[in-house]
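fyi for ur records
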Amino acid sequence: MKRALLSSCALAALLPVLFIAAALGVLGVLGGGAGVSLGQPAADVDVEQVAGIPGEYLRLFEAAGARYGIPWEVLAGIGKVECDDGQDPDPACTREGAVNNAGAGGPMQFLASTWASYGVSPNGGRPDRWNPADAIYSAANYLRANGAPSEIRRAIFAYNHSNAYVEEVLSWAATYEHEAESATPQTGGAAGVAVAFALAQRGVPYVWGGESPSGYDCSGLVQASYRAAGISLPRTAQEQFDAGPHLPATAPLQPGDLVFFGSSTSNVTHVGIVVAAGEMVDAPHTGTVVQTESFPTTIGARWGEDVYLGATRPAAK
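which gave:
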């Protein structure tokens, strides 16, 4: 959080970003002034094509944003300024235990004192400043504690007490929003409606047996999403798999396709909705929220304790 002000080279690199932000009118985003609303889904785009953010970081920004109600673009903007979204070779960004001259360390550049109060780990255990998931979730936790999302400018200023820092973060956030909108695949028909519905539920808690905006399980989310598109599906993951129509193993997946996981085709335990190549929106398990996740696209490949079993295309019915 105590990174030095930009060098002249970094400032030069930022000028095109500032130009884009000015053109979009977003320097006042979410903090007064003209601005636009951030929040374009991240992982329903090609995860390697949002202004150079690594896919791993993009998914973490989105998941942490959904958990704490923070626009993912703002988290990515902070990550960009602090450590180039995980790509800065500075040891203080990448090497366990290394800090800069101000004592900040890890990909989101936390001071030890701030980390002691706000460090969290989405996977449980002791939070680690240099772990990307822990750092990004902790940044979202810190912003939320300091007034975000309603007071996003104040929260970013608390992260680093510099108005120039706030403007820089918001400029990158505007760029990411613009890039995400440009990269979002256009999906029409019933599949498009189902995908849009499912993505709008991100952040809703997982509830076993849930099938409403107060909580979903995996198949409940799928059923509700396709109901919104006018297609009736069975209730459980097994029944949805059995209902088909099944896609050939080598068929390219499209947004809206359903992908299934379990130990076998007679023991299907999980389902998600494809939003992009290798990306799905799903309700994973107790203790999580509706979110986007990566998955393998080769039938039989491991996915956690399960394997990928195949896909169906309900919109083809």
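The first strand starts at residue 104 and ends at 105. thats all i got for now
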